[in-house]
Specification:
With 323 residues, the protein is of the alpha/beta class. The chain has ten helices and eight strands. Helix 6 links the parallel strand 5 and strand 6. The structure holds arginine and manganese (II) ion (MN) (2 copies). Its cofactor is Mn(2+).
Length: 323
């Protein structure tokens, strides 16, 4: 069977957006994730699957020193995260507009503010499948950690925004004001793999009736049914473009140990791959994120395993395992 991608031009092209960025959380090293994945041979692997692969080096993000980026409310590094994600939105949007499939390698998950905004700039009706142990939908009010990688979906769904950060930034635009015009409707978001959701996030998921499939539902119905249930909620007639945002910590720590916020009881190797394979098979994928690989955590064997599994998930999402 020949699996065709509906929205991607032929010959099918994937554009790797390497984002060595860690400003959305506090552990150093997650910025090395994309470098390790590319060094592990990802470009050649994707060419081996028949893709034209564009990769012209990792992004260079100009640091904003902490001195010029004090917290706003509880938010840490708001100016830096805002600036980087804005740049990422532009790049991802440009690739999508050319009919290529942007593959963003993180880096921490705050980057998804950029990737999803970029996708929406080209495909305003896109839906998001968010595979993660965490809901990443804390607002400026509910966040305990102040780490913006736990908040991208609050900004994308406009639960948080520049307006909630006040309007005084020394004459500079308030961080995240570039996102003011971006709105991901909560009915376009579905989660798979959740198991560590903060109390305030649970309230948000309930109040906005967001499709959330936790490990409990995966145990109960099996991953095959859960992916269809998620698609039924956000893409009932299987016609809208899909953005896949995959946080490697969705996988069980025994499968992907090198990540900053591991939570036990996660997806097996096959469950993670099944999600990717099935989304590819729909023909509706338009963008992929693979986030939170942190090669500075755990020993060399664990790092090698996590990087390898990250590459393998990407290959599965780009058609490797389908016959
Ligand atoms: N992308 C991630 N790994 N996010 C973890 C978020 C953890 C926690 N919920 C927080 O707000 O800080
Ligand atoms: Mn996570
Ligand atoms: Mn995440």
């Amino acid at each position: 069977m020949n699996h065709k991608l509906r929205f991607i031009a032929e010959p099918k092209t994937v554009s790797i957006v390497g984002c060595p960025f860690s400003g959305g959380q506090h552990r150093v090293g997650v910025d090395k994730g994309p470098i390790h994945m590319v060094n592990a041979g990802l470009v050649e692997q994707l060419r081996g699957l028949g893709w034209i692969v564009e990769f012209d080096g990792h992004h260079q993000f100009e640091d904003i020193s902490a001195e010029f980026d004090p917290p706003i409310g509880k938010l840490k590094n708001p100016r830096f995260v805002s600036k980087v994600t804005q740049a990422v939105a532009q790049v991802v949007g440009d690739h999508a507009t050319r009919g290529s499939l942007p593959l963003t390698l993180g880096g921490d998950h705050s980057l998804a503010m950029g990737t999803i905004a970029g996708t929406l700039s080209r495909y305003s009706d896109a839906c998001v499948i968010w595979v993660d142990a965490h809901a990443d939908i804390n607002t400026h009010e509910t966040t305990d950690s102040g780490n913006i990688h736990g908040m991208p979906l609050a900004f994308l769904t406009s639960l948080s925004g520049s307006k909630s950060l006040g309007n005084n930034n020394g004459g500079q635009p308030v961080p995240f004001s570039w996102l003011d015009s971006v709105h991901l409707h909560p009915s376009r978001l579905a989660y798979i793999g959740l198991r560590d959701v903060d109390q305030g996030e649970k309230t948000i998921l309930r109040e906005h009736n967001i499709a959330a499939f936790s490990m409990h539902e995966i145990d109960r119905y099996g991953i095959g049914s859960v992916v269809e249930m998620a698609l039924d909620r956000v893409n009932p007639d299987r016609s809208k473009p899909i953005h896949l945002s995959f946080d490697v910590d969705a996988l069980d720590p025994s499968v992907a140990p090198s990540t900053g916020t591991p939570v036990r009881g996660g997806l097996t190797f096959r469950e993670g791959h099944y999600i990717c394979e099935r989304l590819y098979e729909t023909g509706l994928l338009v963008a992929i994120d693979l986030m939170e690989v942190n090669p500075s955590l755990r020993d060399a064997a664990d790092v090698q395993q996590t990087v390898a599994v990250g590459c393998s998930l990407v290959r599965a999402a780009l058609g490797e395992t389908l016959l």
